[in-house]
User: What shape does this take?
Amino acid sequence: MTRPTTHRDRAKAERRASLVTAAARLFAAHGYAAVTIDQLGTAVGISGPAVYRHFPGKQMVLEELLVGVSTRLHEGGREVCAAGSPPSETLRALVEFHTRFALVETDVIRVQDRDLPSLNPLARDQVRTLQRAYVDDWVATLRALDPTLSDPLARLRVHAVFGLLNSTPHALRGSRADRAVAANELAAAAWAALTAAASPIGDAPRA
Assistant: This one.
């Protein structure tokens, strides 16, 4: 991606980024369908028609938001895995990376949960491809740590952890929990879910 070099280019890039941030907040609060171009413009101090200088329409704002976050997750996961640390350290780093994301990007998670179907099919496929690649990195790391895990079981655990961490926007809504404490608790729960010894419920000791 080409970096803006002139003051005008930087200002335009900053305005575009501010529109995406505002869109995340508005879409999370009201739903994609209910938000208008005028509301997007007002949120960043410009008119509705001025939004079209940066995006062809509201659909492209949603695309940049959701494809963008999937790209960041995928690239961040790849960076963690490329560090070449032992599997246990890599898995802990992945957990910490996603925990930070879940605590910071709460609006984006809400939009992803509710408004992904509003993306055009090509953008939706792009999001799904990036998400699968991100999952693959987690699965490969988990199986390197525990080679006895089958691929399906490793994927089940990874998806379960994503469900746990991505529920953060709902769990913390209206909560007074300290974010640092929440981060530690979530990371610990995620690690336990990923590395737990297999123990079918039916075999659990009865009280």
Observations:
- The mean pLDDT is 88.
- Residues 58-196 form a domain with the Tetracycline Repressor; domain 2 fold (CATH 1.10.357.10).
- The chain has ten helices and no strands.
